[in-house]
Amino acid sequence: MVSSQWIQLNIEVSPQQTEQIEDAVLNAGAVSVTLQDAADQPILEPGVGETPLWDSCILTALFPATIDTSTTEQQIQANLSFIMCSSWQLVEDKDWSQEWKKHFKPIACSDGRLWICPSWIEAPQPDAVNLRLDPGLAFGTGSHPTTMLCLNWLEKQSLEGKTVIDFGCGSGILGIAALLLGAEKVWAIDNDPQALLASRDNAQRNDIEDERLITLLPEQIPPKAKADIMLANILAKPLINLSEQISNLTNNNGQLCLSGILSHQVDQVAAAYTEKFIFYPSVIEDNWAQLSAKKRR
Fold first, then answer.
1. Checking CA distances to 5, which of 109, 135, 195, 235 falls within 20 to 30 Å?
2. What is the C-alpha separation between 268 and 261, in angstroms, rounded?
3. 154-191 per-position pLDDT tens digit
4. What is the CATH number of domain 6-93?
5. Domain locations in the chain?
6. pLDDT, tens digit, for every residue of 185-224?
């Protein structure tokens, strides 16, 4: 028999039903509510202030195991305008505050020169360049193909003394990697203040001085911010919309690395930059693409 302090109610919902069900389960005594995908539907990086949901969701409400499930379910149903499809499940006793850490392991980039290491795990290769990272609210842990494509590209560049712009910095992983690999300075730019906070925290975790990684909102970019290496791992549409600004922030003969692009979007994104850049062959991994180019004189 499973012993547990908690029991959870799993409910199949549509995005339009989530708010009503959330209110109903909280009023019935739920201590937490979470949503997850019910159909393996990907959601890419959301815009600031957006909370996109899947077409079909599972809402999970956590209750103390001592409740009367029948009475609780009747109370919830009485506050809904539709019949819910649900099931109860005992929750295994674990230290949930630490459980999520099991999903993050050290990751080696292509040449093995650079490793991305969760801060709580000993570096497998102490003599390598080890980037210490805590996954947070900001996008970018090193595990996604778009991030790894950029890291693999960075690892092969000559970065000594270079100024880098990480446009759409997320967790700061690309800018921090560039500094650990020899870059002199990074301008880390994002329109989400949470991303800038995560970038600063991760920079401190890697003993990087504040003056080497400067975090900015897009409207705060000073005229002197020019890149020898421009990194932009965002999505195809913003890459196209920002092409003029990204191009102008890149020095002549500067290197450009773009990702967050699906393989069928390569030509469309490259077309927005070809007036000022000469492109190299794209690199594809799991249907994601990374583009690199050199700015014309």
1. 135
2. 10
3. 999 999 999 999 999 988 999 999 999 999 999 999 99
4. 3.30.70.120
5. 6-93, 142-295
6. 999 999 999 889 989 999 999 999 989 999 999 999 999 9
- Residues with Cβ < 8 Å from 37, sequence gap 6 or more? 43, 54, 56, 57, 58
> Strand (E) positions, the chain?
6-13, 32-37, 57-64, 85-91, 107-108, 114-118, 129-133, 163-167, 185-189, 213-216, 227-233, 250-262, 277-279, 283-285, 288-295
- Give the global pTM: 0.70
CATH code for 142-295? 3.40.50.150
What SS3 class is residue 70? helix
| CA 83 from centre of chain | 36
* Percent composition of the chain: helix, strand, coil (DSSP 3-state, to 5): 30, 30, 40
Average pLDDT over residues 60-69: 92
Does the CA dihedral 212-215-149-276 come out positive or negative?
negative
What is residue 286's DSSP assignment?
T
